[in-house]
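pasting for ref
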Amino acid sequence: MNILNAIPTQIRKAVVVRFVLVGILNTSVSYLIYALLLSVGVSYQMANLIALVIGILFSFKTQGHLVFNNRNNRLLGRFILSWIFIYLCVIFLIGRIIDFGLDAYTAGALALPFSAVLSYVIQKYFVFKGPAQPTQR
């Protein structure tokens, strides 16, 4: 079942709208994993890394297929490289926010918009750039 079928066709055609909708799902899952790991005593660095790794595989498929209409599994390497870069940027940002006196939960939440914008730009212009590729199985 395509979760985007409930949305009017004209809205679904906008890549940014699809990215935001799929991103909300992906981000919610990742943040819940992050918060759960923090609550059991895992450091914010490791919690973010674990949530990122779990989210990457799911996100690769949802972003590639539902957002950028691209099922080319050969792009997984680019996708992973982009998320290594995004992870490092987000960890740096979370650390700076914590330095200002906020807790790791709040810092992680405040870093989400930055992560989302950076992710969109990198995926659109680096990972899934150009026309859609045929399905690679």
